[in-house]
Amino acid sequence: MPFFVQFPHPGAEHRPPANGRDKPWNVGDHARKFLVSCGTYVDSDLQPRDDELVFWGEWEPPSRVERRWTKSGRLPEALHRPYWMMPASTSPRQNTDPWVFGPTMHYSNCRQSSSMQRLGAGSIICFGSSMDGEFCVDTVFVVASSEPWTPAQAARVNAEEAFITCTAESLATSPRDANGRYKLYRGASLEQPAHGMFSFVPARLARSASVRFRRPAITLPGLINPASTQSPRGVNDPLSLDRLRVAWSEIRDQVLAENLVMAVRFDTPEKHGGSALIPNTARSGC
After folding, report:
1. pLDDT tens digits for 34-79?
2. How many domains does the chain have?
């Protein structure tokens, strides 16, 4: 059955070290980064174009800070270029979820109650954060398919090496999560949409005169409640595909109205040589 899920996750921005350009692998609470990556985007004409894009997302492996700004409301304070390295140890480290890089977007584990493991094709997961009384979106994930998986068998997952290392094996570093049973959701794409809908990330061209942007606030009465900040909302209320298509179109229109584009693919972050040091500290939860 298809559902519309409002998925609240932590909205704070990662603070990079005051000295140095590299933010190490996160072992604390989840947070967002303002990222730059090459990718593919569309706007209202749905014609795919390739360019370097900036966007809000989750990236818990290392990143390089390419630019800093002074604090100004909900605008970002740092621009990160994501990269990854093989971890130097199996100490607990944070995983990245949702994963918006490579040929297919994934949602793999965060807050996956039994209800969150039954989302049918065409379901929409609207990832965002409640900020100043608004629900601000960073990823619009449309379910194409799903399959069961467990972190203890991460090597068996049919995905890129970067995803297996940065998300699947990272989750397995937590004794609490290693033997958990999850659903690996694969996102619908522009080329292979689900009932006319595709996954996308609000973004802006990196060469724009004004690069920084606030995460767009989305208004969908009856489906999005800005006061909902904990559990995913909507997992018990299946909707018709017609209603879901209307909701998806409304989100699309509100994102475009903010002078943003819809990023439909990002290059997989580059793998660097060497090993990433992981502080020996307890990993926080999602």
Report:
1. 999 999 999 999 999 999 999 999 999 999 999 999 999 999 999 9
2. 1
In a domain, 256, yes or no: yes
Residue 128: beta bridge partners? 8, 137
Contact 237, 47 (CB under 8 A): no
User: What CA–CA distances, in Å, run from 259 to 89, 102, 227, 243?
Assistant: 43, 25, 26, 25
In the block, tokens 């997961």 appear at 125
- 164/61 Cα distance (integer angstroms): 12
Tens digits of per-residue pLDDT, 172-192? 999 999 999 999 999 999 999
Q: Strand, coil or helix: what is 65?
A: strand
Mean pLDDT of the chain: 95
Asked whether residue 284 is assigned to any structural domain, the reply reads no
To the nearest whole percent, how much of the chain has pLDDT over 90?
91
Question: Using an 8 Å Cβ cutoff, are 83 and 269 in contact?
Answer: yes
Distance, CA of 270 to CA of 135 (rounded, Å): 32
- Tokens in use for 98? 């949702």
Owning domain of residue 61 = 4-276
Contact 12, 32 (CB under 8 A): yes
With respect to residue 283, please indicate whether it lies within any of the assigned structural domains. no
On whether residue 286 sits in a domain, the answer given is no
Is 171:109 a contact under the CB 8 Å cutoff? yes
Could you tell me if 263 and 55 are in contact, meaning their C-beta atoms sit under 8 angstroms apart?
Answer: yes
pLDDT of 193 reads: 98
Start-end of H helices in the chain: 161-163, 169-172, 241-257
Q: Is the pTM of this model over 0.85?
A: yes
